[in-house]
Amino acid sequence: MKIYRKIEDITEPFTNACVTIGNFDGVHYGHQQLFATVVEKAQVLGGTSVVITFDPHPLQVLLPAGIKLISTCQQKEELIENSGIDVLLVIPFTKEFAKTTADAFVAELLVKRLGVKELVVGYDYAFGKGRSGNINFLKQQGQIFNFPVTVVEACYLGDQLVSSTKIRELVKEGKMAAARELLGRYYQIRGTVRVGKQRGGRVIGFPTANLKFNEEDLVPKHGVYVTQVCCEGRHYGGILNIGYNPTFGEEQLVAETHIFDFNEDIYGKPIKVNLLKFLRAEKKFSGPKELSEQIGKDVLLAKKILAEL
User: Are strands 160-161 and 187-192 parallel, antiparallel or unpaired?
Assistant: First the structure.
């Protein structure tokens, strides 16, 4: 997949471009259906499947409170590539870009720059200043510039609408199995292992890899989770605690992962942590001994759950 990070870097239209546009936070099951439609139609046209997205997320720029993201931009790019898309355009979203009219977006970007031959959008998509570029507008523009517009209907799993909003709710509630169903994969946090208080192995007996949450990160329900950890291309079982370490009176929110059957120095290295199941809420213990005993119980239960997957 070819990635463009500036509109200006696209110097000539793509061959028979089949295009979709959206934020695609989480690249959930509904987004995946949308991308499959784009790929299929591009193949019929003998052309190029193109996805347009934005970084940062527009609501991070336009709303004072921003939005908590299901996936990082890097993870989103990886997931879109896995969907078989040929070209990804990541537009830097600014307040200035937000002033772009829907007419200009279609005429200058979709038609002139990309050479759109077919447009695929979700059932509720709208864009441009004041969200004036709705479905009816796009169909009118399609008639003017001679490109059909395909609208992909809402995606349901059972009676549940698949949406980024719903997935955020489930993650905040610690309902990882339900979140996985809508995502089409496990919910994942990722980051670079940093040096923490180094109490895990020395004081408690369970060494941990520590990740720090960023301000824009979606933080799952605080507590202990069964996890799958990906480090340097290998996968391990583990448990993860998200919280403030109340036993030791910490004030900084961290994610501490104890990786099973693992004894390597990974400080400064990236890891990915899939959250499989919420085990218990975070709790303040009387001291390191009681905490260590509870973690031992958590490890046994987590290993049993992992063995049953």
Answer: unpaired
How much is the pTM?
0.90
Local confidence band at 205 (pLDDT 50, 70, 90 cut-offs): low
pLDDT, average across residues 169-190: 96
Residue 147's Cβ-count burial label (10 Å; 0-12, 13-18, 19+) is: buried
Under the banding of pLDDT at 50, 70 and 90, the label for residue 42 is very high
Answer whether 95's CB lies under 8 Å from 130's CB.
no
Helix or strand or coil: residue 78?
helix
40, 126, 308 from 96: Cα distances, Å? 34, 18, 52
Alpha carbon distance 290, 298 (integer Å): 12
Phi/psi-derived region of residue 259, left when phi > 0, alpha when psi is between -120 and 50, beta in every other case: beta
Apex CA 277: angle with CA 179 and CA 187, to 5°? 40
Neighbour tally for 298: CB within 10 Å? 19
Q: Rounded mean pLDDT of 5-9? A: 96
User: What beta strand segments (E) does 94-193 contain?
Assistant: 116-122, 149-152, 156-157, 160-161, 187-192
Q: What are phi and psi of 116, to 5 degrees?
A: -60, 135
Tokens of 282: 């975070």
Taking residues 268-275, what's their average pLDDT? 94
Pairing of strands 2-4, 87-92: parallel
| Distance separating alpha carbons of residues 32 and 42, to the nearest angstrom | 15
pLDDT at residue 283 is higher than 90: no
